[in-house]
UniProtKB/TrEMBL annotation:
It holds the Pfam family Pyr_redox_2. The keyword Methyltransferase does not apply. Residues 41-328 form the FAD/NAD(P)-binding domain. Residues 370-465 form the Pyridine nucleotide-disulphide oxidoreductase dimerisation domain. The lineage of its organism: Archaea, Methanobacteriati, Methanobacteriota, Stenosarchaea group, Methanomicrobia. This is Coenzyme A disulfide reductase. It comes from the Archaea.
Amino acid sequence: MGSDFGVTGATGKVIRAAGEVQEEVSGKVSAHARAEKNLTRVVIIGGGACGMAAATKIRRQSGFKITVLSCDSHTAYSHCGIPFVLGREIESFEKLIIKTPDFFRENNIDVRLNEKVRSINLTGQVALTGKEAYPFDKLVIATGSLPFIDRKSQANILPYGIFTLRSLADGKLFGKALETAQTVCVVGGGTIGIECASALKKRGIKPILITRSKDLLSSQFDSDMSAIVRAHLETLGVEVITGEPLFLPENFWKERTVYVKDRHFPADLVLLATGVKPEVCLAREAGIDIGKAGGIAVNEMLQVKAGGEFLPNIYAGGECAEVTDLLTGEIRLSQLGTTARRMADVIGNNITGKYSTFGPLADPWVAVAGDLQFGGVGLTPEKAERRGIKVVTGFSHGRTRASYYPGRKDLYIKLHFKDGCLAGAQLAGGEGIKERIDALSLAIKKKTTIKDLLSLETCYAPPVSMLVDPLMPTVKDAVRNMRKDMTN
């Protein structure tokens, strides 16, 4: 017969009866279940730069139950590294994976890959997929962006041989197709298009870079700075065609030809790098406000808005969320990984009770094509003119090292001033561009004046600079132009 009491074994230890053990186990399971039930449930939609970084930030600062729902097939990876894998500067796409699924399992973050959220019920506080319902106390929408494809087609899919680079899986697919390609048409004159064209040439494939804009980098660079990038690409052997739209035949997979006005070019593959648009369908269908720039409207805490008020428990960040421009005060979008990462920090802090705000952006950026680095920050004269803002510009061409030191490279600097304060910068050269842009970004945020820059002290050593830093002639050129404007 059974007993509710333990008996003493041969060793003198008390042996507990099965009923007593079962009761203790049941108690522990019940306590664990209660603890699980009482945990704050955080659901993150999107496994990109913002979503994954927000998950790890929240984990570091809390014991919350975190679930990441991602339609991607890979965990945290560097999207910006894809062109350099295509150019074989990085040996494999796997090298771009920053944190593996094991990392998230070990940190008790439940990552559901290939899990597409179909709808969000704001009232019931639940995210719904085709497979399951995920209730939440806090929600993060980090759905990123979709490739912008300006193409009319009878079918809602891209023909065989035409690719985009939205994800790591896209990169792998395109990389596989490149193994038998000899000529590739890259459509889009932005940073991704330029970096990919350069990478293909490095790999031994003939690239044709086509953009309908009159210049490369038309939204980021002035024509004279764009010309520097174009000249470098042509030196590498990239054929560049600007100011002309591309026509892709429906049967491209069979014809293997692209058309530009009255010309046609043979191409084994086409890569569409024509920009992105925010992925906001899910948010819009849930009743969340979409702003004037086309992204999810958020406040400084990155909380979303619905029904005329901001929701304290729902956040949005990354490429799908709108930001405020530092120089113009306008609402716009930012497609930078650095922006998404900073947004993740703010969201993580606010979800875990550490109040944080996300301020206006100057958007410093940099890119690399072959041996040329180029980038910028803040306003361009074209953007300023569209908004009725008057700017004064200075330009100079210098070197990155002393004239007698081996390995010196060209350096082009262009600065824009608004009301006497630095408001924008564009740079291109062989080295040191990123560090200069970072410094100029800080100068813009601090409202550094042209007078401040005239009295700037700079350091010098022959292997890393000229005695007179090229920044100084740029500032002096702006002063001369400012005086001309005053006398006219």
